[in-house]
Amino acid sequence: MKLSVGLRVANSLSLTPQLQQAIRLLQLSSLELEQEIQIQLDSNPLLEKIEEQTDIENLAILKDQDVKDLTNELNADHLPDDLPVDTDWDDVYTHQPTSLGTSEFEEREDNRQGHLSLKEHMLEQINLLHFSIVDNLIAHCIVDSLDHKGFLDCEISEITQSVQHLLQSMDYDEVIEDDEVLVVLKHIQRLDPVGIGARNLAECLMVQLESLPSFTVNRKEATLLLQHYELLISNELPKLIKQTGLNTEQLKGAVELLKTLKAHPGLKFEDRDSDYQIPDVVVSKKNEHWFVQLNPDIMPKLRVNSFYASMIKRADQSDDNQYLRNQMLEAKNFIKSVDERHKTLLKVATCIVKHQRAFFEIGPEGMKPLVLRDIAEEVELHESTVSRVTTNKFLLTPRGLYELKYFFSSHVGTTSGGEASSTAIRAKIKKLVAEENARKPLSDNVIANLLKDEGIDVARRTVAKYRESLHIPSSSERKVLI
């Protein structure tokens, strides 16, 4: 083997720190970007927000004016009776009202109430009952076994064993039976909310029916329906009428009464924190034209601190001067990366709005098939860049708030040779089901034929898949006979 030395020219892509930072900022959400900016502001003294610096400058200008005015007064030939001072006597000493006087500010009691959980609400009521030590222990075990819907999430025998084990650890010799647990459970089921601690939906509704006044209309018929709960759930109304002996009007009245009851009494105690999303881009329509702009509330206004920048000396190679140079370079690169992020986001959002104009005009039925490659080719970016831009970014439209990923969907062929978006097909299926006759609901095959009449060639299996993704039951489950 002969060794030789030669030159070769080749192209290679290297990710500089600035490019890595730009890519990382591109995929951050608005909240994550705000946190990243705050980190940079805390660590880099040459980076600052314009609003904060403007307030400081205004304060400095006011101070300079006050100092000049005071100096002019002191240099005058005669001194005025009242010289300007920093504070007044009233600022230091304020008159305290007597017992007959009224306070300057109204004192108000803090009436805010914390959110009680289901278990805390139940234990508050149990503590007011005159239970024995054993019954109180059983009640606590029952409450600990409730799920978030308010149902008992274990068997009676398991609660019995738990109570027995606790009594043994407390040196009690009593033996607990399942009947004792059932008696305490009956008391708990009639506390607020009524039906709590039920073992199934039928028992929960039955307890609520029993708590209603005896003169309640259709109470007896509704109780009879719950005795045939399986037929009611499976919607087998002819068998239900035959076995209960009720006519159609009585059955309809009983079902209406059951609908007024609470199927999951524990859900109202669930602490549901609202998940608010701040839009990154805002779309509005003016004079039949759609305009796209970045949300000004989340656009950071950054700049390089002029005071520290003026301290940098060209020929100085000291550590302090070098530190300021590096920090200024990092600040400029960060500002540039944030600016490029906003420009790329606006460019991609504008292209999406251009393609999905029909969606903003008529709704989801006007959604056009769109993939990342289409946007990437039009804005001359890579697909991975478009994917980063559209992740966790939200678009505020007159029709609501949507994630940018929502506007990308697969397509289905049409009879005319074109393409239809899967989102538009789902919207059409949802509309057809909403307008159907409840006594004769549309089957998946009928929906597929109706879509073909509109030029959308879709199979029955595809209709079933889209229907299930919309959480729409099958035609047999949607059928209503009364």
TrEMBL record:
InterPro entries to which the protein is assigned, alphabetical: RNA_pol_sigma_54, RNA_pol_sigma_54_core-bd, RNA_pol_sigma_54_DNA-bd, RpoN_core-bd_sf
Recorded GO MF terms: DNA binding; DNA-binding transcription activator activity; nucleotidyltransferase activity; sigma factor activity
Entry keyword Transcription: yes
Boundaries of every RNA polymerase sigma factor 54 DNA-binding domain copy: 322-479
Superkingdom of origin: Bacteria
GO cellular component: a single term: DNA-directed RNA polymerase complex
Residue ranges occupied by any RNA polymerase sigma factor 54 core-binding domain in the UniProt entry: 112-308
Swiss-Prot/TrEMBL GO biological process terms: DNA-templated transcription initiation
Protein keywords: DNA-binding, DNA-directed RNA polymerase, Nucleotidyltransferase, Sigma factor, Transcription, Transcription regulation, Transferase
Statement: the UniProt record of this protein carries the keyword Transcription regulation: yes
Role according to the record: Sigma factors are initiation factors that promote the attachment of RNA polymerase to specific initiation sites and are then released.
PANTHER family with a match to the protein in the record: RNA POLYMERASE SIGMA-54 FACTOR
Family designation: Belongs to the sigma-54 factor family.
Protein name: RNA polymerase sigma-54 factor
